[in-house]
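Input record, target 12 of the design panel.
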């Protein structure tokens, strides 16, 4: 019951992150206090990290999405990743296996801004090579994974 309720709370919050505790309790058939206690525990365990609005970057003027594959030079991948977090245009930075070391997903106001960022990256001595793809259409972004009770480690919830 407790794992099931946790997952039901998570599912409702994925639908509407601003749902009130009172509304959640009514929808799930439990008290507001029960929802509050479960939510505090989920936040405390880091299962729910934060509540954040889903933005329409295009409507905010960031109409160009680019994916940049990057090879790092030398062994300072951690330092390079820390610097990239400060650039302000990348929404995702992944360390990966394969021919590249990092994959970056960025949002830009246009080709000029993307070009300037790529120029800045290539001037960094820690960057060996980049390969860039411009996204033509976002078919699916921020999609939710289905959550299953079967095989779920109860220690996680």
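The sequence produced for target 12 reads:
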């Amino acid at each position: 019951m407790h794992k099931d309720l946790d997952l039901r709370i998570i599912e409702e919050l994925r639908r509407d992150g601003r749902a009130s505790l009172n509304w959640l309790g009514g929808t799930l058939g439990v008290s507001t206090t029960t929802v509050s206690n479960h939510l505090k525990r989920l936040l405390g365990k880091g299962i729910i990290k934060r509540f954040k609005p889903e933005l329409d970057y295009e409507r905010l003027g960031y109409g160009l999405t680019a994916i940049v594959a990057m090879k790092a030079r030398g062994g300072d991948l951690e330092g390079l990743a820390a610097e990239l977090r400060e650039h302000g245009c990348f929404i995702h930075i992944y360390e990966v296996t394969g021919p590249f070391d990092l994959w970056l997903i960025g949002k830009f106001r246009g080709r000029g801004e993307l070009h300037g960022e790529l120029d800045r990256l290539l001037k960094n001595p820690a960057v060996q090579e980049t390969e860039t793809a411009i996204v033509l259409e976002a078919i699916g972004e921020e999609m939710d994974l289905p959550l299953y009770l079967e095989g779920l480690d109860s220690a996680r919830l």
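Helices lie at 2-15, 21-28, 32-44, 77-85, 111-123.
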